[in-house]
Amino acid sequence: MGIWKMQGGRVSSDDPNQLVELSYVSKATQAMGLSSLIHLFDISHKWNQSHELTGVLFYENEHFSQILEGRREDVLFLWEKIQKDHRHQILHQIAFNVIERRLFPNWALRFYGGDQIAKDVPHLAGVLDGLPSHDVELLKIMRSVAQGNQQ
């Protein structure tokens, strides 16, 4: 494992190729319509594929939540882009961890909108309404949904 350093408020390592997972929640600056969500998914999916990032993205009640996995360098680059993205406000990082293996190895980006969330985990919308006080519970739900859909 590389040596951890703080650089401008962010954690970095000597090894940019180390496999990491980053999760966050945010409030959208405005409601996202279906066409905006499809556009976001299309661009994100292509970028993730070209950079070997995997993960899951949730959107409900004007809130985003996402788990990203990949090389440290790519994940941190994308996290910086997300922090500057005008579609996010009240952006909160839940976790940033070194991982041994990917939870979403085959998903360049799996998108969950309101219909899918309601089908898989009906109580998720209520958790999203409580941001950011339920971060740990939200992360557990996101992981359980992902694991359930891989089986």
Protein architecture, described:
The chain has 151 residues and is of the alpha+beta class. It has a single domain (4-150), classed as Alpha-Beta Plaits (2-Layer Sandwich). It is 39% helix and 32% strand. It has five helices and seven strands, in the order βββαββαββααα. The protein has a five-stranded mixed beta sheet with strand order 6-3-5-4-7, with helices on both faces. The chain has a two-stranded antiparallel sheet with strand order 1-2. The longest helix has 17 residues, at 34-50. It is globular. Mean pLDDT is 75; it is low at 1-12 and 127-132.
Count the beta strands. 7
Main pleated-sheet profile = 5 strands, mixed
Low-confidence stretches: 1-12, 127-132
- The gross shape turns out to be globular
CATH architecture: 2-Layer Sandwich
Distance between the termini: 31 Å
Mean pLDDT: 75
Beta-strand fraction estimate: 25-35%
In the CATH hierarchy, the third-tier topology is known as Alpha-Beta Plaits
The arrangement of helices and strands along the chain is EEEHEEHEEHHH
Please identify the top-level CATH class: Alpha Beta
- Strand numbers in spatial order across the main sheet: 6-3-5-4-7
Tally of individual helices: 5
Domain unit count = 1
The gyration radius over C-alpha positions equals 15 Å
State the secondary-structure class.
alpha+beta
The helical percent reads 25-40%
